[in-house]
Write a structure and sequence with these properties.
The chain is of the alpha+beta class. The protein is about 45% helix and about 15% strand. The protein folds into 5 domains: about 1-75, Roll (Diaminopimelate Epimerase, Chain A, domain 1), CATH 3.10.310.30; about 80-200, CBS-domain; about 220-375, Beta Polymerase, domain 2 (2-Layer Sandwich); about 425-540, cca-adding enzyme, domain 2 (Orthogonal Bundle), CATH 1.10.3090; about 600-650, no CATH class. The chain has 30 helices and 23 strands. The longest helix is centred in the middle third of the chain and has 16 residues, at about 235-250.
Amino acid sequence: MAKMENIDAIFALALMENKVYVIARSRTDDVDVGDILDQIGGGGHPSAAAATVKGKTIAQTEQLLFKALYAKINPRHLARHLMSSPAIMAGEDTTCKEAKALLIRYNINALLVAESSSDAMGFSGYITRQVIEKALFHDLDTIPIREYMSTEISHVHPDADLVEIQDKIIGNKQRILPVMENGKVMGVITRTDLLNTLVQQNRPSNHAFPTLNGKSSSKRSRMVINFMRERLPKPIMETLIQLGKTASQLDCGAYVVGGFVRDLLLYRKNEDVDVVIEGNGIEFAKTFAQAFGARTHTHQKFGTAVIIFPDGFKIDVASARMEYYQFPASLPVVEMSSIKMDMFRRDFTINTLAIQLNPGKFGRLIDFFSGQKDIKDKFLRVLHNLSFVEDPTRVFRALRFEQRFGFTIGKLTSSLIENAVKMDFFKRLAGKRVYAELQWILKEENPTPAILRLLDYDLLRVIHPAIKIENDLKHLLDNAKKVTNWHDLLFIDETYERWAVYFMTLIRHCDLKTTREICEHLTIPPQYAKLFGETRIGVEKRLLRLEQRKRMNNAEVFNLLKPFKTEIILYMMVCTGSEMAKKRISHYHTQLRNAAITISGKDLLEMGLEPGPVFSKTLQAVLEAKLNGRVKTREDEFAFVRNNVMKIVG
């Protein structure tokens, strides 16, 4: 019956002798039939359950069942669930030109007009994009919108159901429906919101998106709490629960968002927790930190904070906000908003997923922009067509995500990238932002494919026109992967900047003048600018000696390479085509670089040597003798000094 009639949930009652048998099936997370039948003495799973009721008629059992249904099931589509909040409103004195700017800024097609009274919280009408555009066409730029707004407008309470919402929007031919409570506008429902809801409600089950457990779901939200328990470490799960409890105490909505949720669904490890608060994120962070012995670092301008635990674990907290761009490639202007608007400012659909943390709704996965479907289809899509115009750095992110996840950039998204390159929006970007995105690419486990994709879109010229994938550069990038992997497998207890090795490889054929231009354009910090410039180019002669000299003892190799950091050592291994040179560098890095002697200046004093230049010459000679195998023990070092001191002094 459920399949034939496409029913989300079904309850069947049958009387046999003096017992009423109830059987239930559910294909929706909204109806937990096990929980419902538990109320009348039965039980089972959320999707299948049964109950046996003795001593009652079918009519009496039906009444019991309805009582349980009313207690356990809330209407799926209420105004409070469908509305966008906060509502974007304009004052009655706003000019048509200013109203047009608001519509563009917030990417909406209708504006509520606020009451002119200073203490009013309601509205006096609404005005549509079409009306404003016609007014501008007739040169009415400076006329207040109150002159042309629609004043016959209905509203609904937050608890209004879908039938009432549909009747007022469609029946009144109303573009926008205010949601009001206690005389205050809580949010708005647009015709598009209603249409999306009706389409989702009537979509056949065979067109629904598969969920993680194999069931079908066509909703924008579903519960993933069990999946979270399976996938997340217990300490993180407990922390998320506590975050939700703190948010509810402050009457805020709390959501874990972005890459954390994306990687959860991709079965990838990600412990970078980003939380969005519908409310004051800074106040939330301080309250949580105080309760759990953590500290905070806040940024008032953006309403963000970082919660830092005693063990170093961090949680990024942001107030739900929306962004708009005053001109292409500019930094965004930020305003407080709702979780839906916060998600809309994100870069790609796969990063718009959120999981609610508040008690009672903990584990509710929210998907406004079909991010689950794109993850399933391995598809990378921007949210809107001007995304790369507003922030061209998203292009670098697109190529990085494409290669990291093995996704495909959508046809439209690809054409939008090509348009951004053709229009050269990148020239307006601050070099520092390009440098940050390039670093993220070079920090990937294997950055070479993403670098080659930069070439596909002619984006290496954004760094510098001199950088081209030609001759041996692709081969060198492959070498960089082999060399860095080799080093990492040594398990040497030290840190090094892996990305810097790739960066130097990328600019391998750039001379000092070009390298300085690149570092200046990208605003690279002085210590790295020197490493990439003078130091990198200065090792060429030393590398040539390692490649050409047929005989070199350990001491000569040591003295040649000792001044350089690990990044330069690995870069030399990447660049050399000589196996002999590569072996010498490898031997230095694994065997020689930490060589040391036990004899000291104090020992030389006790042996009767006068302090001065002879001390350093003597100690250097002992070290070279040890590197070349002529001395091994501390006694050998003393004997070497005694036997050779006159030669050294001379």
